[in-house]
Automatic annotation (TrEMBL), chain A:
Transmembrane segments: 22-51, 72-89, 109-126, 207-227
Predominant subcellular localization, coarse grouping: membrane
Annotated signal sequence range: none
Gene3D superfamilies: MetI-like
Pfam families noted in UniProt: BPD_transp_1
Protein name: Amino acid ABC transporter permease
Classification via NCBIfam families: HEQRo_perm_3TM (TIGR01726)
Domain of life of the organism encoding this protein: Bacteria
Locations listed in the record: Cell inner membrane; Cell membrane
UniProtKB/TrEMBL annotation, chain B:
Species of provenance: Parachitinimonas caeni
Residues of the ABC transmembrane type-1 domain: 19-208
Gene3D superfamilies noted in UniProt: MetI-like (1.10.3720.10)
TM ranges: 20-43, 64-86, 92-112, 187-208
Annotated keywords: Cell membrane, Membrane, Transmembrane, Transmembrane helix, Transport
Family of the protein in this entry: Belongs to the binding-protein-dependent transport system permease family. HisMQ subfamily.
Protein name: Amino acid ABC transporter permease
InterPro entries (alphabetical): AA_ABC_transptr_permease_3TM, ArtM/GltK/GlnP/TcyL/YhdX-like, MetI-like, MetI-like_sf
Localization annotation: Cell inner membrane; Cell membrane
Protein's UniProt keywords contain Transmembrane: yes
């Protein structure tokens, strides 16, 4: 392989026999990657907050269910979870719903990855939220209750606003992870960035795999870096003076 | 829907072989990753600027790249470097060791930084060189402090080995996937591996929690 023909401009070439270009495939893939990751992030934040909060509640039953959710979703690899949603679930539900999922659902790979990735990340977000709530001084909850707030109001107005700010640094790393993890969605036919890359290196340009994979790798690094910047910006805006992240 | 669980015993040999690959990949990557990660952590904390910059660059790059991309990248680059084709399995060993080193580095760095500075000075005052200081004073304590974190990372690593699917390698998940397509038993196979991964990861993480409460250093 000593005479490897380097061609870094390969992504600007025409796709064989069409008037498309490879970079257009990559851009479209990047768009789906961002869509999958951001939509999944919305699910993960909402569900993760609910489950993380539930784990700190005095009600044993609710806390138990929330704990079970976290353990279940944290101990099965993401790719196996996606396969469960994509291949197993349609067979488990009533036949007509299953058939709809397999045949008529628009963008099945994309939708399934958004939900699968969202549920997967929710377990991780829940752990961060729980840690954030438990990290607050116990007096805050007691003070809220002593002021006559109900438990729900104490969470809504006292605990969660504080906990959210405290957990922003660990949430930053989850936010970066969700973009990275979205690459696994290729395995259930979601046409995101990694999928497009595999298509190009596999069927169209097997001679220039190194360049294509490296370029796509750099795009992912850039996305993760941007995600990090955005979260740091938010962190600065909402920091509580004198609190952990406040001094950084 | 008809589930045919009788297909599982028939598949157990192939699953077992795949499982063995998953385990040996996990063990090798954990061992190599911890050794490499410890060296990286020492480099990151070094007062020699270029050294610490290279180490932190290494860590940051691998930590912001999806594992599937890294697996795939090494798979296409390694043959170019060594000049001959390399199998999916061998490529996976190299990739996971190099990739996990970045994560283990951060854990070891936290461990080293958890040791009070006075101990380093005490060592130097006793005439220890940097190497001796690390070898006899800092690393043993640092290591002990982060054993639970290292084990937790190893459980994550065990789950991540399922991503060698991208190379078509036959790990536990890969074996299940191949049998699933051969025998047309998708449901049974996927449910089975999910249960296997869950049981192993769940009980290991329980064990780590237990261990954590046992070995936590009393200060």
């Amino acid at each position: 392989m000593s005479q490897y023909q380097w061609d870094w401009l390969v992504i600007f070439e025409n796709v064989t026999d069409t008037d498309e270009f490879y970079y257009q495939w990559l851009i479209s893939g990047l768009g789906w990657t961002l869509l999958i990751a951001l939509s999944a992030w919305v699910i993960a934040l909402i569900l993760g907050t609910i489950i993380g909060t539930a784990r700190t509640l005095p009600n044993k039953f609710v806390a138990g269910i929330a704990t079970a959710y976290v353990e279940l979703f944290r101990n099965i690899p993401l790719i196996v979870q996606l396969f469960m949603w994509f291949f197993v679930l349609p067979e488990m539900v009533p036949t007509n719903i299953g058939n709809w999922m397999k045949q008529d659902m628009p963008h099945p790979g994309i939708i399934t990855s958004i939900i699968g990735l969202g549920l997967f990340t929710a377990a991780r977000v829940a752990e961060q939220i729980r840690t954030g709530i438990l990290a607050l001084p116990r007096g805050q909850k007691n003070a809220g209750l002593a002021l006559g707030l109900t438990l729900a109001q104490t969470y809504r107005h006292v605990l969660l606003p504080m906990a959210f700010r405290v957990v922003i640094p660990p949430l930053t790393s989850e936010f970066m992870s969700i973009f990275k993890n979205s690459a696994v969605a290729y395995s259930i036919t979601a046409t995101e960035l990694f999928f497009q890359m595999k298509q190009i290196t596999g069927d169209y340009k097997p001679a220039n795999q190194i360049e294509v994979v490296t370029i796509v790798g750099l795009i992912y690094i850039l996305v993760a870096f941007s995600a990090n910047r955005i979260m740091t910006f938010i962190e600065r805006r909402v920091q509580v003076p004198g609190y952990i992240s406040g001094g950084k | 829907m008809q589930l045919d669980w009788s297909s599982i015993p028939r598949a157990s040999n192939a699953l077992w072989e795949g499982f063995q690959f998953s385990i040996s990949l996990t063990a090798f990557a954990a061992l190599a990753g911890i050794i490499l990660g410890t060296l990286l952590a020492m480099a990151r904390l070094s007062s020699i600027k270029p050294l610490s910059m290279i180490a932190s660059g290494y860590v940051n790059i691998f930590r912001s790249t999806p594992l599937v991309i890294v697996i795939y990248w090494f798979y296409v680059v390694l043959p170019f470097i060594i000049g001959r084709p390399i199998g999916a399995e061998h490529s996976a060993y190299v990739t996971f060791a190099i990739f996990e080193a970045a994560y283990f580095c951060e854990i070891m760095r936290a461990g080293i930084q958890s040791i009070p500075k006075g101990q380093v000075y005490a060592g130097s005052a006793l005439g220890f060189t940097y190497g001796q200081n690390m070898r006899y004073i800092i690393l043993p304590q640092a290591f002990r402090n982060v054993v639970p974190l290292l084990l937790t990372q190893t459980i994550i690593l065990f789950q991540d080995t399922s991503l060698v699917y991208v190379l078509g390698a036959t790990d536990l998940f890969g074996a299940a996937d191949k049998i699933a397509h051969r025998d047309n038993t998708l449901l049974e196979m996927y449910v089975t591996v999910a249960v296997i991964y869950f049981v192993i990861s769940f009980f290991l993480s329980r064990l780590v929690k237990h261990l954590h409460s046992k070995i936590a250093i009393i200060r």
